[in-house]
Amino acid sequence: MGIRLGPNRYGKAESRVVRIVRDTPRHEIRDLNVSTALYGDFAAAHTDGDQSQVLPTDTQKNTAFAFAKKYGVDSPEDYALVLGRRLFEATPAAHGAMVKVSEYAWDRIRVDGSGHDHAFVRRGGEVRTTAVHVSPGRTSVDSGLRELVVLKSTGSEFKGFLRDEYTTLAEADDRILATELQADWRYSRFDDIDWNASYASVRAVLLATFATTYSRALQETLYLMGKAVLEAHDEIDLISFKAPNKHHFLVDLEPFGLDNPGEVFIAADRPYGLIEATVVRDGEPS
Ligand SMILES: O=c1[nH]c(=O)c2[nH]c(=O)[nH]c2[nH]1
Predict the structure, then answer these.
(1) Is residue 246 packed enough to be buried (19+ CB in 10 Å), middle (13-18) or exposed (0-12)?
(2) Distance 19 CA to ligand 1 centre (A)
(3) Residue closest by Cα to atom 7 of ligand 1
(4) From 27, 57, 213, 242, the catalytic residue
(5) Which of 80, 135, 168, 281 could covalently link to 237 via disulfide, CB atoms 3.0 to 4.6 Å apart?
């Protein structure tokens, strides 16, 4: 029985690239975690110890830093596209290059009512992401966010569910709905997109929809959020969610002679329901 090399790729993971724009006293900061990978005809490196076609991961890392200087970081997407194209073109054996970027946001520290020129505080909350794939047939851009933690203290129920002999869950007419949202959306085109504006708008649509729609289940809320994004953004044809249901259980305060009409909860960290869904524009492959 023969043995052969299966799928493989290689690259530099998690280069922490911080770009400061300091052309004026008012500095700007972009803080990125960059991972690159190449795939293609790299069999000889695995089977013959032949590195002649291997662009070192060290070079990939160097390019990530050099391009932050050379081209700046207008958006994670623009940066990932130019980096991905370069790595692909620099490596004849490559069939494709992938660049993944997570961006950590910083806000200006407010002093006497205005934002400081060069002192920043890391914004809590979500991480912005993009994944760019460069290959001869197709370039794709998937952007998204992670760790967007949201909660609504009413406007959510869960009832009418299937029951069997192991079901103990009580129907909930009015519960807390909370999740730590992961969303990834796919751009159908990428030549004329204002990436930063598109990100800000998708985020705003997700939050507004979460806030203003009544929830009969997290599944319904995810679907409504995805639908709202696709309705508002014709440049996006698919959005996927991964949403842990961060359960909040009402605490029984009766032993202490206290009532508890939806006021005191225990936030359970695990286990959690994990709801995943993709919302797709009609006619698009999912
Ligand atoms: O929104 C919910 N969806 C479920 O599928 C589910 N299952 C469960 O126990 N609680 C919930 N809540």
Answers:
(1) buried
(2) 43
(3) 273
(4) 57
(5) 281
Determine the structural domain holding residue 180 and report its residue range: 146-286
Q: What was the ipTM of the complex prediction?
A: 0.98
Catalytic residue, chosen from 152, 246, 247, 248, is 247
Q: Do residue 177 and residue 280 come from a single domain?
A: yes
246 and 211 in one domain? Answer: yes
Averaged over successive runs of 10 residues, the pLDDT of the chain (286 residues) comes to 96 98 98 98 98 98 98 98 98 98 98 97 94 95 98 98 98 97 96 96 98 98 98 97 97 97 95 98 80
Global pTM? 0.94
Q: What residues line ligand 1, using a CB cutoff of 6 Å? A: 158, 169, 217-219, 245, 273
Residue bearing the CA closest to ligand 1, atom 8: 273
Query: Are 281 and 173 in the same domain?
Result: yes
Residues 156 and 94 in one domain: no
Active site residue 213: no
CA of 172 to the centre of ligand 1 (A): 10
CA 283 to ligand 1 centroid distance, Å: 30
Judge whether 108 is annotated as a binding position.
no
Domain termination residue (choose one: 137, 159, 181): 137
Q: Is 57 a catalytic residue?
A: yes
**Listed residues 137, 162, 177: the one ending a domain:** 137
